[in-house]
Amino acid sequence: MSDDSLKEQIENWMVGQMPIIQMHGGTSVVREANPETGEVVVELGGTCSGCGISNVTATNIKADLIRDFEDVRDVTVKVPSTGDQGSSTVEGGRGGELQFSNESAEHF
């Protein structure tokens, strides 16, 4: 499986999750999906930043991606601490150019 096809599959999966995330004003973007290592990086933005349940959302995304995709072994979900997000969004509320500002392990 190529890197792009796994990333595309995960992006499509995330679009399916957007009614929940988007309902709260959140956005997401898949930053990395490596089929060789099984590593996936998803970044949440919009109102996910500072949201009291963003840790629950992140935990659910991690568990569901590992369960639903055979090639996925490790998932990192990042949420910006500033609430900043890029100006572009795409179908389903996925964010275009989110830039996280908190990469600490304690954030999630």
TrEMBL record:
UniProt-listed InterPro entries: FSCA_dom_sf, NIF_FeS_clus_asmbl_NifU_C
User: Which residues are in the NIF system FeS cluster assembly NifU C-terminal domain?
Assistant: 19-75
Question: What name is this protein filed under?
Answer: NIF system FeS cluster assembly NifU C-terminal domain-containing protein
What's a BP term from Gene Ontology annotated to this protein?
iron-sulfur cluster assembly
In what ranges is there compositional bias, type Polar residues? 99-108
Q: Where is this region: Disordered?
A: 79-108
Could you read off the lineage of the organism from its UniProt record? Archaea, Methanobacteriati, Methanobacteriota, Stenosarchaea group, Halobacteria
Superkingdom classification of source:
Archaea
One of the record's GO molecular function terms: iron-sulfur cluster binding
The membrane-spanning stretches of this chain are: none
